[in-house]
Design a protein that fits this description.
Length: 417
């Protein structure tokens, strides 16, 4: 993608790579896009800004899901040294806005007509008190499964469309000596998989439990079944799953060491980076039982309050660039996500990307688009973290049954609310 927006790097970009001091027209960007696929996508943004003479001071904080990045951010803000721009998810944006830490993008939003092209589900997080405070980059979703095509062919089975078929495929893979599921045992990854368990119980149930935080839904029979399925999935992992990074789990599927990964569509970025093609090398499906629904998370760049007109101008220019249709297509093709605007053609996207765009439009139209709990789009951080504890416990054999886990979840959420 290098060179797409400009053939050569500008002096500002070169300088940005060699100094840690932000010049007036630079943007300092805190983010957690450090895997191969993520970095490739980020380069699309860096290159485009470089083409406009905006330098990039990189502040990467590794750790999928962004927990470590958010810890670093707090330290920076407490020290009175907020970065210009920060990759951020859902409720975290609202939290920082509520504290008065974010700037105002209304000027560029009005000029570019964001209200008309950015879906309401994203505006709900990108605006605070009626004002734009962040620029949505993409829409990811968590209810995906990435399957190694050769491993699936070995089972002689079709792609699973419901829970029972999924279990049959997993059993067949196990018999064939393939680790059925590649997983990284980190709380955010456990929770990412669990999003799908709850969504497979139905959109209404998902909303009742994860958005309304209804105690009966959280602790009831459907949640118990969601946990039973989750605990069952934990029996298909290899012995070394604990604390494995998500992209290393993707690599297991890419290499054929494992059959599938249940993960958001950032995983597709890894498959593409490895030169794999959807349909030929890997297959993408919605988690069985969730086709028609989408549990989404949208990466946004929240703009912090900065001093100096030139810095504010750089923020506005960055936001404007991010929302341009050209960027939205070029970036999301590489990242595995889909555009944050409704009017970007799917022409340049591969089949999984086209499916992602169509699924999102369908879910948005029929009311089955829900915010991902795992990625901070269903409930604020305190609740999310309480849920993580119980979900990770369940992944690691803490509960004798789904019922026990559901009871624990209801109690943990009640304490965190
Ligand atoms: C998500 C984020 C994605 C991807 C993923 C793994 O929270 O929305 O863009 O980066 O974490 O790092």
């Amino acid at each position: 993608m290098r060179g797409f927006f400009g053939k050569t790097m500008t002096a500002a970009a070169v300088l940005a790579m060699t100094t840690s001091f932000a010049r007036a027209t630079d943007v300092e960007v805190l983010h957690w896009w450090t895997s191969g696929g993520e970095a490739a996508a980020l380069n699309v943004l860096k290159d485009m800004l470089a083409g406009q003479g905006i330098g990039w001071v990189d502040m990467p904080v590794a750790g999928g899901g962004g927990e470590a990045a958010m810890t670093t951010l707090k330290a920076r803000v407490n020290a009175g040294d907020a970065p210009t721009s920060v990759q951020m998810l859902g409720f975290d944006i609202q939290d920082w806005a509520e504290q008065g830490s974010l700037g105002n993008l209304d000027e560029v939003a009005a000029k570019e007509g964001w209200d008309a092209v950015i879906p309401a589900a994203l505006q709900r997080f990108a605006k605070y008190d009626g004002h734009w405070v962040s620029a949505p980059v993409n829409v990811h979703s968590t209810n995906w499964v990435w399957i190694n095509k050769a491993a699936l062919d070995k089972t002689g089975l079709a792609v699973p469309t419901n829970w029972d078929e999924l279990v049959t495929v997993l059993d067949k893979m196990k018999e064939a000596g393939i680790t059925p599921i590649a997983h990284g045992g980190q709380p955010w990854q456990d929770a990412t998989v669990f999003d799908s368990m709850v969504l497979a119980q139905g959109v209404d149930f998902y909303n009742k439990a994860f958005v309304e935080l209804d105690p009966e839904a959280l602790g009831g029979a459907q949640m118990a079944e969601a946990f039973d399925h989750f605990i069952k999935l934990s029996s298909y992992l290899d012995a070394n799953f604990s604390n494995r990074d998500w992209n290393l789990a993707s690599a297991m599927v890419i290499k054929g060491e494992a059959g599938m990964q249940i993960m958001g569509d950032w995983a597709k970025g890894e498959f593409l980076k490895a030169g794999q093609k959807p349909g030929a090398d890997f297959v993408c499906i919605r988690f069985p039982g969730t086709q028609g629904a989408v549990s989404f998370n949208s990466d946004q760049f929240a703009m912090f309050n900065v001093d100096g007109d030139d810095k504010k101008a750089a923020q506005l220019a960055m936001a404007q660039a991010i929302e341009s249709p050209t960027f939205q297509s070029a970036f999301n093709v590489v990242k595995g996500s889909v555009p944050a605007r409704t009017d970007v053609p799917d022409t340049d996207f591969d089949d999984c990307g086209k499916k992602g765009i169509a699924d999102l439009a369908e879910a948005n139209a029929k009311g089955s688009l829900v915010g991902s709990m795992a990625h901070g789009h269903a409930a604020p951080a305190a609740v999310k973290n309480a849920a993580y504890d119980v979900i990770t416990g369940a992944m690691n054999g803490k509960f004798a049954s789904g019922t026990e886990a559901a009871t624990a979840l209801a109690a943990a959420v009640a304490a965190a609310k």
